Amino acid sequence: MAEPRVYSGLEGSRGILAWIVFLSHVVQQTSIGERLPGSWSMMKSGDQAVSLFIIISGFVITHLVLSKAEPWPVYIVRRACRIFPGWLACLTIALLVQPYEFQFLTDLPWHDNPHPTNQLLLQAQELAAGRGPIHLALHLTLLHGMVPEQILDQSTFIFLPPGWSLSLEWQFYLIAPLLIAGCLRKPLVTFAICAAGMLIGRAGAFGTFPLPAFLPLAILTFWIGIMTRIAFERFDQVKTFPVPLALIGLAIAVSHFDWAFLGLWIAICAYMKTTPDAKDAWHVALSRLIDTPFMRAVGDRSYSVYLVHWPCVAASASLAVGVLHLGPWATFGFTLLAGFIATAVLSDLIYRTIERPGIRLGRLLAQRLRVAA
Rounded to two decimals, what is the model's pTM? Predict the structure, then answer.
């Protein structure tokens, strides 16, 4: 059994976001670059999807903390059992694929953007220098996102790049009950502390991070999700879809791409705050997009999709380049299709055989902790 549904539409939204990240990484790993119209937007859409994932995480964890009121040890055991089994499975797959990624994707003759291949070369150099065990230990504990480049280069994404945001999530989980309590009791003070930490971090006080994998750098994004869930407590659902609110969100998303995640979140909130039996056209249309049984099933597997797609895409691209000797367009097409199939199959397998048993284990351990207390 999966964890209780939080609000309608969230699971389907997460499913769509995970596959947007998949598409952005197909573009990145095949280095199709300027040959593909709109490739920049595809790459940036992956960043926007991750930002929206973080907001949704803040919302969902706040809901769980408010609704369950568990002691911290019980809460954190459940969280650990939710994320670590799937993470360790996907990390293992990534470690098996990485040698082929290094072998075939570090010197693509057609790449327009050298950044992805340069990153692979730097990662290979880190491992050749004997720092692999340190990187692995940090990844096994999901603390790798906290280490700046000055201390350990490539720590953020040396084995499984999407894992940077999972390290960020784990850091958030560790302090979420305290942060949520602060938002409930002293929201302005908590916001000021979070904002100060973010500004100090982005000024370089904590070191250099290629992505906001250290919690202070992204804490305000979680704060948006937290405060949204708290605000939901104070407003009843409406019977008619709030079209003006959704239009404001869509206008933000369309007018300023860097804030697209926030605009889409406003639109999703408009849907969640509408009663499920609403029949107006806007609500029905969104329901068909993000809230069908199929989309909820896709959302249930979004965590595995988000993590396992990287080695699936890397393996597909490596096969296309190193074995089939395909050109740029054929490599892109093959990687898109083969990566999609491999990701869909593996994510479903991981969800059924690893994620769900991990959730059940978390419930069992939490029950025993309650009895022991």
Answer: 0.92
